[in-house]
């Protein structure tokens, strides 16, 4: 039971990390209709930038947790305004190809700047060590990740359900033409949502780095799982993304522990099964 308890905490922390990362992807797709295949690269950049900050004269994890998402937000702004905005009239295929190409550009830039070695980001001293809960020992950092993920989930829910900006986003999920007709600056909405998605990806990269490490190709590995979560939860659904993230996080963790030979297969099998039963995903509203 002790081992299963630890795996449960590991699965929840991993699932909530996936939620933080994938929620940005879900927002961008739901509001903008853009399947951003460079989203995993923004996650990767957050991790690498955090590594650079913590290994500089500042050497502060908390500074990295603030600065890295901000820098990723700046990169997201440049990508959306300078590149994506020119493709909106060309259709979704152009945007997919553009972001796919950007993913490889960022991949090569990361190799050039940080090399190809596997890097690590140390857990901050205040969150190191373990605590005993119900006579079981759990790493403090993983419990903190669970708390952070839940807080972000609540914040996203409040923004989406209780604010004017959330009402605009909900309207954008169902009818972009309508919000344009009401006088809403759709360009500003698109840019803001894309930046916010980048911030979530960069933040997830910093938080995940002490657990998952920093290594070449990490962006593609994460992107694949994020797409699985996106499809299972339902395209554009934040609530569906939350449920799917927890599901995949627990499935990945327990399958690696109990059925390691099937661990790579099971998430895709679950995705296929759910799509057979619910073609739009668990809570999807986008056809």
From TrEMBL:
<feature type="transmembrane region" description="Helical">
    <location>
        <begin position="12"/>
        <end position="35"/>
    </location>
</feature>
<dbReference type="InterPro" id="IPR052157">
    <property type="entry name" value="BCAA_transport_permease"/>
</dbReference>
<dbReference type="Pfam" id="PF02653">
    <property type="entry name" value="BPD_transp_2"/>
</dbReference>
<keyword id="KW-1133">Transmembrane helix</keyword>
<feature type="transmembrane region" description="Helical">
    <location>
        <begin position="188"/>
        <end position="212"/>
    </location>
</feature>
<feature type="transmembrane region" description="Helical">
    <location>
        <begin position="96"/>
        <end position="114"/>
    </location>
</feature>
<feature type="transmembrane region" description="Helical">
    <location>
        <begin position="224"/>
        <end position="250"/>
    </location>
</feature>
<comment type="similarity">
    <text>Belongs to the binding-protein-dependent transport system permease family. LivHM subfamily.</text>
</comment>
<protein>
    <submittedName>
        <fullName>Branched-chain amino acid ABC transporter permease</fullName>
    </submittedName>
</protein>
<feature type="transmembrane region" description="Helical">
    <location>
        <begin position="140"/>
        <end position="159"/>
    </location>
</feature>
<keyword id="KW-0029">Amino-acid transport</keyword>
<keyword id="KW-0813">Transport</keyword>
<feature type="transmembrane region" description="Helical">
    <location>
        <begin position="64"/>
        <end position="84"/>
    </location>
</feature>
<dbReference type="GO" id="GO:0006865">
    <property type="term" value="P:amino acid transport"/>
</dbReference>
<keyword id="KW-1003">Cell membrane</keyword>
<keyword id="KW-0812">Transmembrane</keyword>
<feature type="transmembrane region" description="Helical">
    <location>
        <begin position="257"/>
        <end position="277"/>
    </location>
</feature>
<dbReference type="GO" id="GO:0022857">
    <property type="term" value="F:transmembrane transporter activity"/>
</dbReference>
<dbReference type="GO" id="GO:0005886">
    <property type="term" value="C:plasma membrane"/>
</dbReference>
<keyword id="KW-0472">Membrane</keyword>
<dbReference type="InterPro" id="IPR001851">
    <property type="entry name" value="ABC_transp_permease"/>
</dbReference>
């Amino acid at each position: 039971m002790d081992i299963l308890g630890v795996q449960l905490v590991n699965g929840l922390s991993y699932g909530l990390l996936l939620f933080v990362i994938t929620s940005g992807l879900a927002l961008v797709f739901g509001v903008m209709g853009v399947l951003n295949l460079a989203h995993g690269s923004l996650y990767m950049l957050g991790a690498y930038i955090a590594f650079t900050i913590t290994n500089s004269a500042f050497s502060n994890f908390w500074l990295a947790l603030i600065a890295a998402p901000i820098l990723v937000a700046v990169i997201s702004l440049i990508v959306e305004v300078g590149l994506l905005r020119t493709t909106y009239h060309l259709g979704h295929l152009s945007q997919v190809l553009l972001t796919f190409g950007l993913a490889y550009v960022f991949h090569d830039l990361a190799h050039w700047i940080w090399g190809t070695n596997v890097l690590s980001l140390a857990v901050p001293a205040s969150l190191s060590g373990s605590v005993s809960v119900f006579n079981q020992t759990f790493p403090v950092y993983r419990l903190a990740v669970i708390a952070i993920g839940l807080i972000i989930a609540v914040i996203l829910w409040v923004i989406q359900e209780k604010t004017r900006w959330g009402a605009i986003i909900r309207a954008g999920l169902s009818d972009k033409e309508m919000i344009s007709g009401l006088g809403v600056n759709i360009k500003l909405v698109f840019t803001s949502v894309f930046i916010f998605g980048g911030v979530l990806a960069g933040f997830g990269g910093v938080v995940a780095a002490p657990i998952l490490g920093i290594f070449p190709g990490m962006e593609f590995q994460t992107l694949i799982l994020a797409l699985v979560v996106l499809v299972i939860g339902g395209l554009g659904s934040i609530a569906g993304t939350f449920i799917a993230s927890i599901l995949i996080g627990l499935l990945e963790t327990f399958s690696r522990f109990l059925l390691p030979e099937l661990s790579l297969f099971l998430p895709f099998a679950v995705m296929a099964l759910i799509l057979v039963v619910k073609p739009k995903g668990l809570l999807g509203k986008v056809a």
